[in-house]
Task: structure prediction
Amino acid sequence: MAEDTRLSVKGLNYGGVGSQPLGKLSKIPFSNWKKATDKFNEHQQCEYHKRLEDPDENDGNFRALLRYKAMGGDETLKHHLENSSKNARYLSPTIQNEVINVCNKLIVQKIVAKITSVKLFSVLADETSDIAGMEQFSLCVRYYDNDIKKIREDFLQCVGVTDLTGKGLANVLMDTLANLHIDGNFMIGQGYDGAAAMSGRLHGAQQYVAEKFDLAIYVHCASHSLNLALSDACELPAVRNCMGILNSTYTFFNTPKRQSLLANSIEKLTPKASASRLKRLCATRWIERHESVNVFIQLQKATVDALEIMSSWHDTTTSSTAVQLLGAIRSLEFQVSLRVISKIFAITLPVSRILQTENFDLSAALKFTEDSSSLLVNMRKVAESEFTTVFNEVKDICEDFDIDILIPRRAGKQIQRCNVMANTPEEYYRIAVFIPFLDSVICQIGDRLLKHKSVLRGFMCLLPNDSGFTKEQEKNAIILMQKYERLINSSVIDESIGELKLWWRHIITSGNVPQNAHQAFLMCDVKIFPTVHKLLQICVTLPVTTAVSERSFSTLRRLKTYLRNTTCEDRLNGMALLNIHRQIEILADG
Result:
């Protein structure tokens, strides 16, 4: 064994001075996370760690991982670390960066090779600031992977940017694609959020990219569109106030002393609740907003109990705020709004989740959105019976909290709040809260997703249905074929229309009608229907959301932290690709 013990390696089952046996945290998985802190402190004092042949000081994750892998049975690595001379172990920071950079290039090459093989792709991009205040432009691609028969959305690179204008971001995007040897002429879609610098019609990045690559259609992220629709709908005063109270309550309890009191109340009053603390209302993720509403409903009794206790504390700030929150929670309008929000969000929640999945095409996304909108419309038609169910739940809560069920005072002239005529509290809140909020959600979803329908309208002629192939569909098909003439390799429109009619006939007679573009693409035989197959490939490759770009920001925050805020761009990208694309094997021979 070499004299330098900084990377010394013992046997697989024993380690340290005297070959001490390896137990938990080394050979036996640790799973008792509730007592993790106590167990770790206890383990730290064991003889093994006092006598282990580890370095006297932390020599970094890289060396520690190499040592661990050598101990795990990699005999080649073990032999190299134990027998190589000190100047030939290749463990320096420079070598580390070179290895990471090589891995970066190999992973990108494999992704680019897949894109090149299928040719057609869309770009997905978003921008954020890292911990060092640098603007990072996350570039991802969406394409159809023929090997696994699925749509893929792969992260490519994070690029530092200084020019945040539409033209500057467009230049970064196009230059990065060129540097990665991706042919922009086969770009058929651009997926961004609604920021003006990205989506602007005149000076947005999408416009500058479309000027150079005319087939790259801009599609506004469907998840952002749905979130914006719900956000605008929540501007109804009663709903907005309810959301504000929920957020204020979460913030109030977000201290150790108050949280401890709330935990005691939860254990005493709602021991079967699935949550152990209130959940923050995220400003952008509406999935989390729905969860925060449901969590508050579960923990409402415990929350009120904790606020009642704190209202008698000698701490003036705490007690006065607790009294204010109690008054807000114990209002009939808050209780009605809370239940209405929960009922309507329960319908939009599945759509929010579905839109963030990867193997999902634009036609399927719109179908799910239209289905949820239809459910809301049907709810609106029977608003009276639907709200009766909601109001009965509110009555039970009001009885527990001693809330008077009364119609708010009506004034002769009132423009600051709802001032409708009603005979009962149920009728009043149905007219003042339930119906307006429901109408607003339905209208906002329809308006926000109208552009997506216009993008998809031309491709609907590719999806057979029982109505038959109409003249209008034939007209749309001709426009579609002329637009993508360069990609479908067919200059004779009549032949392509004949092929499309045969495709319709084939599907209708088979009785197996596809539900979306992805299903149709899998059913379409490229040898028999080459033009239809290519157009369907274009359709499934069009962007749906930019969720993959936003997920890359989570990786960015884990890699470039406060303690590692000077990480260079090459190292950052290499580590990000290794983390995100763990399924791609990196071998010594490439």
About this structure: The first strand starts at residue 14 and ends at 15. The chain has 26 helices and seven strands. The mean pLDDT is 86. The radius of gyration is 30 Å.
